[in-house]
């Protein structure tokens, strides 16, 4: 049945050995049951007596012991599997090897690192404190305290962990979980079939996800997602992040929506994402503004037309003013007054309304007002002339009267004398 489950006494060597169900024992039969437990515990690195022999599988296996004791379990070769606390198995090192306090179990397994463990056919634990578990599992000499678990899993750097068939963790403190995963950069992490993380502190989650070597701190999450720029994140199946410091939920060929987003703060300093309802309100305002702008555009166009018309009128008026210059009432700077000269000759102002006649009036007066004044002046002149004649006559009369008065005075004086 090709499995070990019995511990038998070997009289030739004077020791108990773990052997197949087909092997026969000799001597100390009463102690078999107790020693079976001890032998099983020995498989967990508890030492038993030196020179213990093991027959496994087809009963042709052989074990070789060191001075401190070990148990060798193998098939088809000497010391194919060994457990020991010494530095090296004697006999044939190419078929089984154990360093101090190491454990090697399996066909051609080898635990060459101190305190290392190799379990499985052709498993190899080369560095101190490392564990190689599975057919062909390998922890390299540079992979102290690393772990490779799974067929052909490889851990090749300090504290690296490779878990899964063909998993490969080559970065310091890196972790590769899943078949064909690769974590090749320091502190990188891969989870999922074929995932690959090749840059510092990068993470790839999902089937065939990838973070490239120039995408430090990048994250790829979802089947086929790829991040190829620093500090960026690709989320979703076949999403790509090709620019630095971005989060991508799709690719050039594949667009996705982000739903159930809360209202972001809207301010001069806000960096929040906004949702559709917030943008809807903005769009409503933009639509209203568009309508208003369209109306204003019509008004502006009308104003433009009106301005063009006014410009034409102004140009026409300018031409008219230029034409009327000789016929207009112009300011005469030399005399400090408006001049009505036309072609060098004086001219009249006609159709002038009657101005106000008052002590403080500055209105221009017309000819009819001056005519009336002149009429009164002429009459006054005639009256003055008549009065002058009367005054002259009165003066003559007064002179004659004065002479008469003087004569009377003389006569009165003469009469007075005669009376006396």
Automatic annotation (TrEMBL):
Q: Which GO terms describe its cellular component?
A: outer membrane
Q: What organism is listed for this UniProt entry?
A: Salmonella enterica subsp. enterica serovar Agona
Cite the Pfam families for this sequence. Answer: ESPR (PF13018), YadA_head (PF05658), YadA_stalk (PF05662)
Please identify the protein, giving its name as recorded: Autotransporter adhesin SadA
Q: Please state every residue range assigned to the domain named Trimeric autotransporter adhesin YadA-like head.
A: 103-123, 142-167, 169-189, 201-225, 228-253
**Domain named Trimeric autotransporter adhesin YadA-like stalk: residues:** 257-301, 348-392
Domain named ESPR: which ranges?
A: 1-47
